[in-house]
Write a structure and sequence with these properties.
By secondary structure, this protein is mainly alpha-helical. The chain folds into 2 domains: 177 residues, no CATH class; 127 residues, Rossmann fold, CATH 3.40.50. Helix content is 48%, strand content 6%. It has 12 helices and 4 strands. Helix 9 links the parallel strand 1 and strand 2. Helix 3 runs parallel beside helix 6. The two termini are 41 Å apart.
Length: 321
């Protein structure tokens, strides 16, 4: 393996490993191909190896879907072109390397040159301008993974509309966020929202209110769930009535009493308040809001607890932005 003076794998070696990996897969989904290879140690979270990887993933999916190309020859040509693209072109030149890489892949598929008069020259320009616009709408700072995902979305549409092949697509949820110090989190369309579980013993009152207000006030930031260690046949009817009065939310339309095993594994579990003892959920709670149970109390006492839950939801939302 060839190492540079900084102790890192040189770009050509990274490119060769990307090509080797592409030649071993049979997926028709360029996003899946990209995701699997990008997890390898020869692909950094950011770096000009993406100028090879992105186009290579598209070429591989195109070939696997029945595209008429010599895959190994095409990948080697793409690597040759990708190695000519300097790093940081997105910030220094105003042109993202992910888009350029996919544009190079389209050029290889069609055999396009600067002198081509068959329409492919202009169509590739149209594609790259659309893809760059998609990136511009999200904004910086750069993320080589996000920029690749955005470019693939436009590329899959382009390929399926212009060639006699059908590339597969899938919903994208980024798994690289924790490795990216500049991740824009919820501003990124591919950021995986945290799952927040609100827990109390019977999942009939406070936790149901928290789930409803989480969905109402913070669904753009996190996913809200509620559960208990025991269940009730219905949600607390005073809670249902007062939530309709205050927010126009009918909890009985979309919610019901659930056990912890009925919801997805949460990223954070929040106890509503333990009073005598906290319910056992098989793991430690991330927070305990210490809320009084308003069951059987006056409407005013109910509203005080609901307002406290609203404030806590907004604080949690601001923390996770």
């Amino acid at each position: 393996m060839f190492i540079d003076i900084k102790g890192e794998i040189i770009m050509e070696e990274r490119g060769k490993k990307i090509i080797e990996a592409c030649l071993k897969v049979n997926s028709k989904n360029p996003i899946d191909i990209f995701n699997n290879i990008a997890q390898q140690d020869f692909v950094r979270i950011h770096g000009p190896e993406h100028h090879i990887l992105d186009g290579a993933s598209l070429l591989t999916a195109f070939y696997n879907a029945g595209g008429d190309i010599d895959l190994e020859k095409s990948l080697n040509e793409l690597m040759k072109r990708g190695l000519q693209m300097p790093g940081a072109t997105c910030g220094l030149w105003g042109v993202c390397g992910a888009v350029s890489s996919i544009g190079a892949a389209l050029s290889i598929i069609d055999g396009t040159t600067p002198l081509s008069a068959d329409g492919s020259w202009g169509k590739h320009m149209e594609f790259t301008s659309k893809a760059l616009y998609s990136l511009s709408q999200v904004g910086g700072p750069r993320c080589c993974k996000r920029d690749a995902f955005l470019s693939f979305q436009d590329a899959i549409q382009y390929i399926n509309a212009n060639y006699d092949v059908e590339l597969q697509n899938a919903q994208i949820k980024c798994s690289f966020s924790e490795k990216n110090e500049q991740c824009i989190k919820n501003k990124c369309p591919f950021y995986k929202k945290k799952k927040i579980a609100f827990i109390c013993v019977h999942n009939s009152c406070r936790s149901q209110i928290a789930e409803a207000l989480g969905k109402h006030l913070a669904s753009d930031i996190f996913e809200s769930y509620s559960a208990g260690t025991e269940i009730k046949p219905q949600i607390n009817q005073d809670a249902v009535r007062i939530m309709k009065e205050l927010y126009g939310i009918d909890m009985e339309q979309t919610q019901y009493s659930k056990l912890i095993t009925d919801i997805p594994d949460p990223d954070e579990a929040i106890s509503m308040g333990c009073n005598v003892e906290c319910p056992f959920i098989g793991r430690a709670f991330d927070d305990n809001w210490g809320l009084e149970d308003p069951t059987g109390r006056s409407d005013e006492e109910f509203k005080i607890v609901i307002k406290e839950i609203e404030n806590r939801i907004l604080q949690l939302r601001n923390k996770l932005i």
